[in-house]
Amino acid sequence: MRISKEQAEAICYREINQPRLDWPDTPELIVVRSDERERTWVVYYQSRSWVETGDFSQAIAGSGPYVISKATGEFVIAGTAAPLSDRLLEAEDVLAAKNAFWLEDAFRVAQQVLDGDMDPNFGCSLIAEINQKVGYRSELDVFTALAHDQNGHERFGFTAQSCVAEILDACHDLLRSNAT
Question: Bigger pLDDT: 167 or 136?
Answer without folding.
Answer: 167
